Amino acid sequence: MYAVLAIVIGIILYGLTYRFYVKWVDKNVMMVDPSRATPAHVYMDGIEFFPSNKYVLFGFQWKSIAALGPVLGPILAVQWGWLPAFLWILFGTIFIGWIHDYGSMMVSVRSEGASFGPITYELISPRARTILLWYILWYIVLVLSAFTNVVSGLLNTIPQSPIPVLITTLIGVIAGFLTYKFKVNIVITTIVAIIVMYIGVYLGLLLPFKIDLGVWTIDFWMWMVLLFCFLGAVLPIWVFIQPINYLSFYLVYFGVIGIIIGTFSGIAYSAPPVTKFFDPTVTLSGPLWPMLFVTVACGAISGWHSLIGSSITSKQLDNEADGSMVAGGAMIAEGIMALVALTTAAILAPDIAIGNIKAGKTAANFVTGGSTLLNIIGVPIDLAKTYTTIMLIILAITIMHIGLRITRLILSELAGPRLRGVLKNKYVAAIIVMVIVWIVTSPKTGAAFAYLWGTFGGANQLMAGLALMIITLWLLREKRRTVFTSIPMFFMIITTISALIYLSYSGITGYMADPTRIGLGIAAAINIILIILAIVMVVEGYKAYRRIKLVAK
């Protein structure tokens, strides 16, 4: 199959989905009202609540949801062949992904900007709120661990990457102050910032940064990554997270567009359409069902998106009419990126693509395939490799700081009377989460990347199923159609609980075979905890369903 066909088919179907399905749901199910004041205006405080330009917010939303999931997930899925991954990315996004993202944000908007914790308290029960918060806490620890593993490895092995990442961070902070404090035109700020970021990419080639601390080298980079996250977790949104994520959108998506253009050269897929349903020597992550659907992760649907939409973006939405573009449109754009990522691996010789996966170098497939396609359109190969590496790093760290911010808030909410005073301190709460992530991730104590990715994917997709349950219950209470969210909800919950059971068994047996792998044992334990929490949450959701139906009668 020609690579360009996969991309073009995806873009056409996604375009039709946005033009007809998204707009229809926007009008007939969510019933948006452009005249209704959004929480960004009602509760504007300049820190969490503030109305944002819809194009800025779209860029922020996309970059805040688009991390390593829609890149490394589809690349890992090549182990089952390119066709199963292609179909799941395509139809998962069309029928599940975008409505999950859009519904999560709009339910929060209609709930005065409340996050899922307070919404669950009101809609289901106080017990369900506590359960959900514990679930989200451990789920995000897995997200941070999986991404820290990849980013620290890239910063260590690609010395051309640290300088561009540092420059992108600094220019993002400066752009935030120029836009919000000095009221500089956003167009001018954006253009200047993009130019500086690309100069930074070139400087990375001229000023490679390599450090050798022996066995502590990777740990050094892990703590540098976690320090970046710490700043995002404790500083106001407009100072750090929003401007950096907004500007990173351009850095990443220009690269995506360049890779897409490269597919028009006529390059074809080398990977087979299908391999095996389950063969431990080929399908390293496990059987196609349920593991494909958690391995692809954010490329089709992601629970992470529901947290971004309900916790952050909903507080910045200027007008309800912007919601379908900001949330639904951003998920569709992520679906395109997932198809691009799948292509970067599918064009490689199967022994190279699978060999990198077996060696734990999944990111190398994106760098090799992506730089090949950029080179076709005239980008020098060394610059192309640096650029694709930076794309991966930016994709990860620009959601990791949000993840740490959310977890330190949750930790303070869950603290008992004795610890509440300590954990209400945002610095202490953030540092505690950072230490837990380091223990799970460090090569001295951590789980292997393949396992970390699978367990992150399972937790991530199960979070999406729980989010769909919350959206469905809200729609039921409001007497709206629920079929569009209830069917995806059942599929996601059943599939991902099955995946987590499989991963729990794999983790326990792996730890028993080698007790020095403490991180593997911790990750397996977290999986079991998440399964229990999810089952209890589903039971609470069913009770709420019966109660809402009774009231409706």
Tell me what you see in this structure.
It is a single chain. Helix content is 75%, strand content 0%. The chain has helices at 3-28, 39-42, 54-65, 69-76, 82-109, 116-123, 126-157, 162-180, 186-206, 217-234, 241-263, 288-295, 303-311, 323-346, 350-358, 362-376, 381-414, 417-423, 426-441, 449-477, 483-513, 518-552.
What sequence of helices (H) and strands (E) makes up the elements? HHHHHHHHHHHHHHHHHHHHHH
Query: Could you tell me the radius of gyration in angstroms?
Result: 22 Å
Beta-strand segment tally: 0
Residues in helix, %: over 70%
CATH class: Mainly Alpha
**Percentage of β-strand residues:** under 5%
CATH architecture: Orthogonal Bundle
* Average of pLDDT: 89
Structural class based on helices, strands and sheet pairing: mainly alpha
Shape: globular
Low-confidence stretches: none
Our count of helices gives 22
Write the CATH fold name.
Hydantoin permease
CA-CA gap between termini: 54 Å
What composes the largest sheet?
A: none
Please tell me the total number of domains.
Answer: 1
SSE topology sketch:
Blueprint: H1 3-28, H2 39-42, H3 54-65, H4 69-76, H5 82-109, H6 116-123, H7 126-157, H8 162-180, H9 186-206, H10 217-234, H11 241-263, H12 288-295, H13 303-311, H14 323-346, H15 350-358, H16 362-376, H17 381-414, H18 417-423, H19 426-441, H20 449-477, H21 483-513, H22 518-552
Helix pairs in contact: 1-5, 1-14, 3-11, 3-14, 4-14, 4-16, 5-13, 5-14, 5-20, 6-7, 6-20, 7-10, 7-17, 7-19, 7-20, 7-22, 8-9, 8-11, 9-17, 10-17, 10-19, 11-16, 11-17, 12-20, 12-21, 13-20, 14-16, 15-16, 16-17, 17-18, 17-19, 20-21, 20-22, 21-22
